[in-house]
Amino acid sequence: MKVILEEQGLRDGLQTLAQIIPTKKKLEYIDRLVDAGIKRIQIASFVHPKLVPQMADAEDVCNGITKKEGVIYSGLVLNLKGVERGITSGLDHLACSISASDTHSQKNARLTLNEAKNAFKEMVKLSQENGITVRGGIQCAFGCRYEGRIDPKHVLDMVDHHLDTGIDELALADSTGMANPKQLGDLMHKVVDKAGNIPVALHLHNTENKGYANFYAALMAGVQIFDTAFGGLGGCPFIKSATGNIATEDTAHFARQIGYETGLDIEKIAAMSREMEVILGHKLPGQLYQLVNKEEIKMI
Ligand code: ZN
To answer: Domain limits at 210?
Structure first.
């Protein structure tokens, strides 16, 4: 059986870091991740450079890549302006995303939920008119730091709304890492059913240490695409308990042990995490890269 990991390390992983990683280094890492077997990779987000300085070189990164056949290079957009930038950057896949939490939406995107839903429709339309495939995302689909638990009925309504816009694939995000495997498994079963032949992806954070349990629950519910970041890169070292996505190499190893193949060279990815630890001067949240230092990863 197969499971696809979409690498988010260069976007979600880097975006909150105070230390700016040079464009050249980002391009090197994109190539090395693809060389390690990554078939989907998010390389930038088109957000305001003042808000996210790490992403100020989004266009340079997109123009600098050498696209390999069979690999999806994606950019994250949160509004129409982002879509316009995504179009001129030459990407052929955009992740358009809005929040399931009204409070989070108002604070983060300065849009009420209804305004965001209308804007989302326009974002999908404009992308597809320009030949771009769209992943329609729902942030904070399980929990929100402002609102607490998000009602699954509300999320399913948003899923219907997303699917009605004609998106090419659907993604739910546990942006805050608050979901638990029971709640998440139950909801993802319903989402996978609703989506039919539209692929469903899940974006997981390990903030409350449930990321890998949630990965397993979603896998059992039929989800086949997961967002991960090498080394579990992400979060902010200055914010209490903020962590990144589940780690690419840890997830690939876990998947392999339970009979799911990712096609990734785990050791190559772990080596990149070890290098990133040196560049950043602190440990990354991933575990496996620390274990396998110059040793083989043991399959048990
Ligand atoms: Zn995220």
So the answer is: 4-299
